[in-house]
Amino acid sequence: MTTDSENPAVEQVGDDLVDEVVERLMDRADASGAALLGEGGLLTQITRAVLERALEAEMTEHLGYEKHDVAGRGSGNSRNGTSPKTVLTDVGAVTVAVAVPRDRNGEFEPLLVPKNARRLAGFNERILSLYARGMSVRDIRSHLAAIYGVEVSPDLISKVTDAVTDELTAWQNRPLDPVWPIIYIDALWVKIRSGSVSSKPVYLAVGVDMDGRKDVLGLWVGSEGEGATTWMAVLSELRNRGVEDVCIVACDGLKGLPDAVTATWPRATVQTCVIHLIRASLRLASKRDHPKLVPALKAVYTAATEQAAEQALEEFAGSDPGTRYPAIVQTWQRAWPEFTPYLAFPPAIRKVVYSTNMVESINSRLRKATRNRGHFPSEQAALKVLYLAVRELIAPRARDVNRVAAHWKEALNQFSLFFEDRLSIQ
């Protein structure tokens, strides 16, 4: 059976009707000289009319008969005029002059504009969207005043954003899948006031599920110094939320993390980020030497076996760039225990775990949300902004772009073989 939404002809008719209505409205605006936005503007008038029509429909549903219908005589309840009300919407402050109908028995509870509500849901979402993009309360007030002509108090913005606190708590405590092929772990630094302003790490865990999609598992504010104790608390929380096993935990060499991973998931493989090693190496060298360093390091991380990688590193250590920059050799030697698991992986798995760029792309979005804030008044305020940014990233409309690799099924099959019976492919 074909629905209207699946019928191109029906969709075309709908589009034509919308275009016709828009043309009529624009002609009317041109003829009258009416503005598009602001009080008295065209969109404001349309919004008011739509709200009034919808509220009248709600009243009809409540009473069981149309306005002026003789069926309402003797029904025991009837319309009793209207009450003026001002509500905030996405197109500004709309004064609904006759928008809220009343009934004589006082039983009508409108759903579109509930009693005591002054903002429609869309307006709250607009504030949260601006907040998630790193705008401060002052910035949001200025933006709403400039674009919509609406003066919004700081208290109102705080109430709207505070409303996500319960949602954040539920998200942070939601149950998780028992087995994950990969979990990427990283940290970003934000300034938080705690007596004085200081930079604190916010730890980020991103899991790749069996469908090859990424999901942010949690956010945690840590102390200024990282260590095994901090990581044990983070990983234990993931374990308590249902994560029983992880094949690979990829990270950027965070202090204390490998030991904490082993203690939490004994069978997990800790893999350091290859890109992180390359970047750390290049930071130790002059840019003019980068063209020589990159091919030499590539010979190490693309080696077919661990023995071949050791030989490539020895050759680099004895080369001119290696003797000039011995700290680069030491960087790879220190990371060797967490780097070498990569060399045993099949090609499809190597492609997926090559770097933490996937989690870094999320970090980039989160940094944008915090960059303009200067500092946060509390840890909770920082988590609130970061969660709102994450919420936009994990929205259903973004799920298809959250794929980890184009050839994930091939990688998943190799995961299943490489990690024996720990993964079950449905």
UniProtKB/TrEMBL annotation:
Region (Disordered): 66-85
InterPro entries: Transposase_mutator (IPR001207)
Record keywords: DNA recombination, DNA-binding, Transposable element, Transposition
Function field: Required for the transposition of the insertion element.
Family of the protein in this entry: Belongs to the transposase mutator family.
Listed NCBIfam families: transpos_IS256
Protein name, entry field: Mutator family transposase
